[in-house]
Structure to design on (260 residues):
């Protein structure tokens, strides 16, 4: 069975919240409908979000670092939120493995939110309906879009390509390779929900700089040995370099604005 999912690289997430804002924009205007906001410009704003980024410091002064941890529905292969729903509004699709909510059948009882061990569901206080990440189901299957654009909004918006999308049951997919090669892990596996989304472990940084064993460049395959290739490409025009990167999939359309 196909199981679409996200793989998030904690090494390169910078906590910019581009994924949060793009998710909000797409889903508010998509089939999920309006997502409530209360006092969005006030001192204590609140609202409905499918995706959030938690940031915290790790280590002891002066050797501290900021860690950014994006979190949304994990589209579990054995989701505990589905069997507790009294109306069948929460369900898991066989064709792509996504866990979704039928808003017409949801009565806002919050049973699914209580059952979810990850706190990934949010009740929309205006609509009184349960909402959650859909992995942009109305986008990823839209044949009117180019294949490159048939990805969740958060994936397309990420300026550092920290988010990967694909079928984790396909051993040749980009997400399966990343999990296999980088030691991708599931969040709270002890709950036996088998989360589809995975995280790539963060490599701690040290003061020894690039090239050390702890340097994240090693895990991303970007080492000092690439300097010769960089020098060879430096003579090319900026436009041709950008086109080559797009062709190789090394840069996303959403991040072009930062390069030109």
């Amino acid at each position: 069975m196909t199981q679409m999912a996200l793989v998030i690289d904690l090494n390169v997430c910078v906590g910019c919240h581009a994924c949060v804002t793009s998710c909000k924009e797409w889903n508010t205007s998509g089939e999920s409908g309006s997502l409530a906001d209360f006092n969005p410009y006030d001192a204590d704003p609140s609202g409905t979000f499918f995706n959030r980024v938690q940031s915290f410091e790790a280590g002891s002064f002066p050797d501290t670092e900021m860690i950014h941890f994006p979190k949304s529905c994990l589209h579990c292969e054995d989701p505990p939120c589905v069997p507790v729903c009294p109306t069948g509004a929460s369900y898991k699709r066989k064709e792509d493995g996504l866990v979704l909510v039928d808003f017409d059948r949801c009565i806002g009882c919050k049973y699914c939110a209580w059952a979810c061990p990850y706190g990934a569901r949010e009740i929309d206080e205006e609509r009184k309906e349960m909402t959650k990440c859909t992995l942009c189901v109305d986008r990823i299957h839209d044949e009117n879009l180019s294949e490159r654009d048939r990805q969740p909004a958060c994936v397309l918006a990420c300026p550092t390509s920290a988010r990967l999308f694909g079928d984790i049951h396909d051993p040749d997919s980009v997400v399966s390779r990343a999990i296999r090669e980088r030691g991708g892990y599931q969040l709270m596996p002890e709950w036996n929900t088998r989360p589809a989304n995975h995280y790539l472990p963060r490599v701690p940084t040290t003061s020894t700089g690039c090239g050390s064993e702890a340097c994240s460049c090693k895990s991303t395959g970007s080492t000092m040995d690439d300097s010769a290739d960089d020098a060879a490409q430096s003579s090319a025009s900026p436009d041709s370099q950008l086109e080559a990167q797009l062709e190789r999939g090394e840069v996303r359309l959403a991040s072009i604005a930062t390069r030109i």
In short: Confidence is low (pLDDT under 50) at residues 218-225, 253-260. The longest strand covers residues 51-60. Helices lie at 18-29, 111-115, 137-140, 153-157, 174-182, 216-219, 227-233, 238-248.
